[in-house]
Queue: 4 jobs
Job 1
Amino acid sequence: MADHLLKNIRYSVLDLATVLDGFTAADTFKTSLDLAKQSETLGYTRYWFAEHHNMAGVASSATAVLIGYIAGGTDSIRVGSGGIMLPNHAPLIVAEQFGTLASLYPNRIDLGLGRAPGTDQVTAMAIRGENFSAVHSFPRDIEKLQQFFSANNNRASVRAIPGEGLDIPIWILGSSTDSARLAAEKGLPYAFASHFAPAYFEQAIAIYRNNFKPSPFLQEPYVMACVNVVAADTDAEAERLSSSVKRMFLGVITGKRELLKPAVDDINQYWDQLEKEAVEQMLYYSFIGSAETISGNLEAFVAKFGVNEIMSTSHIYDHQAKLHSNRIFAGLFESD
């Protein structure tokens, strides 16, 4: 039976378009569409992709293209970015791309924005070229985007066509307190990357709520927390399946990134105690287990932090197990 707290919470999906060991990016995109279609039938609110570059195991580099692919293969679920790394792009180009998406798929496109490069510094230099050393202002670039989307921009010398006059919700993404202050100042919804940066989560959402200024876009604070989810019929099976995401984060810590590996029975053969502690710290906000186990932990999480929406990301190697996890998680939010 779903808890009253969870019945009032929206639930969504973050997809990194993770490439599996032994498969290709083309395979990944097909399974992403399959997961998105299932998520739509299960009542998930939105399906987002995150912009990353120069990572063999992450195929979401052309984020806007993937958003179009998923939106075109579904009917009602919101599709968007979690997020577009704004310093990598001219605001006009982002406005045109998302204006095109919103024109093709009205009232279904979200634009989540981050300020990090989504990659290493060498790759960031390759992306930005001569602009790499330029002074970037994330707040100013957001204002430029809002201006391009405004119907009042119709007399400006530079216009976003399509994009102008369209209602495309902008979200601020973050993993620190700086993003929280910015989202509060601009009166925009706030999505926190607690799935890999848990340290500042509690402080950041408190800052956001305490400093929030109502805007034409949002009257009250709105917090979405992204968390790792691995659900299965039993706690033991979920723990086994979670070995894939743990090995993935081990690669982040050691700098030895690989394609997502199959689940293993004994994760301890792959890490030492210090590496284990580092991975578990990054995965602090993870919900791993059976429906009963996750439900109790998730209810406690929602009660403590009062989030408005939960976005799950699930790095599970076996696609059928991933679909099953997605189904179990959605069931926690169903009304009685």
Job 2
Amino acid sequence: MESRTPQHPQPLPDVAHEAAALARPLDWVGMEALALPIRLAGGDASPLLVTAEVDVAVDLRDAGARGIHMSRLYLLLQDQLANEPLTAPGLRRLLDACIASQQGLATRARLRLRYEHLLLRPALVSAHAGWKRYPVEVEAELRDGHLSLWLGLAVDYSSTCPASAALSRQANAARFESDFAGARPLSNTLVRDWLASPRGLAATPHAQRSRARVRVELRPAFAELPLAALVDAVEASLGTPVQTAVKREDEQAFAEANAANLMFCEDAARRVASVLAADARVAAWDVQVAHFESLHPHDAVASVSGRNS
């Protein structure tokens, strides 16, 4: 195909239309790590424009065709992702358009988007709130008219070791027994003051920042991408999501939440799996948790996956 511009009155060569050497169809051809703006649905607020890293690919079914029309894919992504909020129907329309742009060269299309989503999270007790960022990945594939849609996210939380907590309680009890061996009678005031003093804390259980990575396949009946709802469900199942703006009362409440939610990595994986297995929007799920140990120089990890009926 010849192309002329005011700057180039002579036809510009287009070698992409030459016959392919070693002709054969290709599974996927496209571009990765495109820097593009995407528009997110903002609920009651106006849609939000954020920066994303985007991968796009189509199959090349024509064995003799040398290549696809990549510039058409780029222009489609640049236009639609910036102007239409990210929804399941919108992704289907975009993938349809990607296939159509190839004029018979392609039969399926795939899209991956990676970005950071900001959610305003309230403090545990005080009236403060702060922004927390969540890494998100959306993967959509249109094949034979069927849309497969996956949503991935990561949640940071605190994990306090149950074994360390038991050992700490034993050490605290031993000190109490030593300090009060000859004290009779024991008044509530005496015990309370001892507990509130440095002597009342012989040992503390080790805790660490931890991360749960979740990837879910969404059912086609739901148009919206339930990011905030999934974040809420995962954080509630763990009980100790990391905080943003805090006062002393929030920090105390966080310490109480950690004591009430002692967990190994195995416990955390099961907690997250339980809420995903009960979610009607989710067809399949995969959970990976990592506890970035403060006791060891290595991480403790667990993973679990499943498919909902």
Job 3
Amino acid sequence: MSLTVLLGGARSGKSRLAIRLAEASGGAVVFVATGAARDEEMAERIARHRAGRPSGWETVEEPLELHRAVASAPPDACVVVDCLSLWVANLLEAGREPELDVPVRPGPTIAVSNEVGLGIVPANALARAYRDVLGRVNAAWAEAADEAFFVVAGKALRLGDV
């Protein structure tokens, strides 16, 4: 298994980098989209993301059952998970906790997630819980990754071990 994790702020270039890395894999790509179009703004964001992906890629829209979606991809395909932060939000909204184990598969996997723990402490309990849970998910996926990058202003900084 080859796992690459891309962390960064909103609109930092994470998804664009994930697409470039998946294209460079040279094989079939399965794009696992975790967003749900619950309002017009989100529907527009999803449409923009979809338009930015190559048309030959398979898209699996799965807001909750991420592990199952990743496991069902063909073993030699490159899987792009975009994104862990929406998956965590969807699970918390459904009253569920995310699994901290990372799905293991033979083909390459690229996971995208927002880093939300760099700002001020959120004012309400739900936002603090989300920040904490997403931080644990991001740490688990980065720990399991062969490579992890922090994406800022379209530039990727390789994260290393301490």
Job 4
Amino acid sequence: MTMIVEKKDAPLLECRFYHKPRYHPINQGSRSKKPIVVKFMLYLPIIPRLQRIFASMQTMPHMTWHHENKSQGMLRHPSDGEA
């Protein structure tokens, strides 16, 4: 498990939860002055992507199919269930 770093956590050198270093140790002969992050995760916001999918006339019918074609009494998709 990793810590998601926000602006307030940027200057930290250790994880708040596990107290392990956030960066690989810098070697003496290394050219890189910038520390290398141990783990890196990209966060891609989903809302703008969904807005583009629903705005397209080709993909919009596929996105609304489960809502428009609900079946009574027969489970074809998890959206047909009660829960």
